[in-house]
Design the sequence.
């Protein structure tokens, strides 16, 4: 990896700012003063210091994104903006990817990481990691729907969902819509929309609020993201 990229990634600002540091004779690689940001270093092996301080290299990155509508949960796409396009260039350096998919029109919590093992654990059907969604539904959600979700909805392809906890949180009688919260245990394609379709209802708006122990940080505006805290990372790693 180029030294200036490495510095930008480890929090020493943009490449331009890294250049200033290099010019100011503040950077050493393996105890040798370095002025050229273009040199290649091995972040795992070489020791880099800035103003005498050893720079720690993080092999993994973990971000929580408040996904807005209109972007797709992919790393690249020729037609659409992806969730990775929402990251600052230095946050893309370690090739993070979204853990699972939210539909283009779904908002909410999306974990973005390059930790394949963690992603695998979170997505593995065997782990049955709970996901909680808030939604606006066309029509009035009633006791029969709540019971059907508790009994296990059968999707259009015959898949039987595990018992899902559906809670009615509001009714707009003028618009004839309901607001709900639902917790599901699988991650089938369009699952929430298909579960409501199975009870002849339509999802008008969908937002994911939790994934396992991870909760959406509601202080994040739509389209914004932040690094996970150490506590959040540990909680996610404790899933097994
Ligand atoms: N269920 C859906 O229908 N869509 C999503 O984006 C997530 C879950």
Sequence:
């Amino acid at each position: 990896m180029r030294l200036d990229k490495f510095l930008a990634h480890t929090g020493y600002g943009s490449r331009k700012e890294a250049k200033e540091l290099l010019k100011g004779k503040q950077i050493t690689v393996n105890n040798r003063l370095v002025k050229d940001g273009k040199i290649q270093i091995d972040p795992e092996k070489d020791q880099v210091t800035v103003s005498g301080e050893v720079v720690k290299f993080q092999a993994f990155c973990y971000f929580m994104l408040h996904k807005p509508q209109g972007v797709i949960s992919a790393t690249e796409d020729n037609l659409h903006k992806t969730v990775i396009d929402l990251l600052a260039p230095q946050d893309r350096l370690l090739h993070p990817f979204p853990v699972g998919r939210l539909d283009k029109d779904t908002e909410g919590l999306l974990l973005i990481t390059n930790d394949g093992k963690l992603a695998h654990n979170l997505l593995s059907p065997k782990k049955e990691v709970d996901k909680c969604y808030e939604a606006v539904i066309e029509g009035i959600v009633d006791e029969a729907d709540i019971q059907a979700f508790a009994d296990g909805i059968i999707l259009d392809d015959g898949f039987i969902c595990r018992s899902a906890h559906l809670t009615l949180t509001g009714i707009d009688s003028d618009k004839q819509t309901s607001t709900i919260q639902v917790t599901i245990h699988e991650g089938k394609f369009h699952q929430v929309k298909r579960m409501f379709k199975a009870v002849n209802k339509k999802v008008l708006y969908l937002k994911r609020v939790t994934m396992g122990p991870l909760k959406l940080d509601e202080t994040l505006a739509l389209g914004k993201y932040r690094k996970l805290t150490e506590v959040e990372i540990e909680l996610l790693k404790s899933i097994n």
Observations:
- The mean pLDDT is 94.
- The two ends are 33 Å apart (CA to CA).
- The helical segments are 3-9, 15-23, 116-123, 143-151, 191-198, 230-237.
- Residues 130-211 form a domain with the Alpha-Beta Plaits fold (CATH 3.30.70.1560).
